[in-house]
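Structure ticket #2291
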Amino acid sequence: MKAIVQESYGQPERVLRPKEIGRPPVGDDDVLIRVRATSVNTPDWITVTGVPYILRLRSGLRRPRTPVRGTDVAGVVEAVGKNVTDLQPGDEVFGSSWAGALATPGTFAELTVIPASQLIKKPAGLGFEEAAASVMSGLTALHAIRDVGKVGSQTRVLITGASGGVGTFAVQIAKALGAEVTGVSSTRNLELLRSLGADQVIDYTKEDFTRSERRYDVILDNVMNHPPAKTARVLTPTGTFIPNSVGNTGGLFAGLPRMARAALMGRGKTNVQFVTLVVNRANLDALAALLESGDINVFIDKVYPLSEAATAVAHMLGHHARGKVAIAV
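Resolution: structure written out below.
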């Protein structure tokens, strides 16, 4: 089968190459999927570049232990393991192979294997590209807003990086839960945020939200381009600060120390909570329900063919994607 394979670390166009590889084996609890679409997420470009080097202790010192990138998937079931009883060949499904590791294989390919517990049937009205692009970012936003932030009616929410993958979902989910939402982004994305339902928008090129007199009950910081203490200054006394980035603006080296400082702040008076992505059927069902109801929509910046997966990753690596970057297979 055709796949995009990574055999060393570096820039996407240099290290991601098309290659014929064998069909993946199907375990007893697994589902073999003919991939129709996938998407690019932060763990993909981190593993492609291999920077910072300390993360190679997990993904592989000289090359990734698993050569195929990608976790999100939407496609058609080809075969199922002997313990899988509720999915069958021909079913259209979506989900993720994510298991908490940066080197999780591998959906940039014609076929992939996913645990059945991390898949559900795709809603009929949802396209393959939209379904695939919704999973990691949508579930991250859902967990951050619904579970960690406990957002409800009239909750005042500030979302940085609001025009990105997680941000576009977070704005819509917060609005669906009745929140008053402020989105932070660049000038060119302000109208996008308004179209997603943001009540207020802040252009970070003209205004520093950390100097504002406004206070927020929940801050979801997807960028971390301000020191955590400055960001937390605009929280209400009982507010929740949710750092969710390793530095989209300053790079991974800039982001990791800020995440560490945020964790230390959480030992004091500031309520700091982190997001842990859990892919299971309950969370996928909740995401699918929001998508089917129209409460949230998937905003895709660009769709690339599988043969141009390297360009898709480079697009994401540039940190200027609006919404999601998808790959059609």
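Closing remark: Confidence is low (pLDDT under 50) at residues 246-253.
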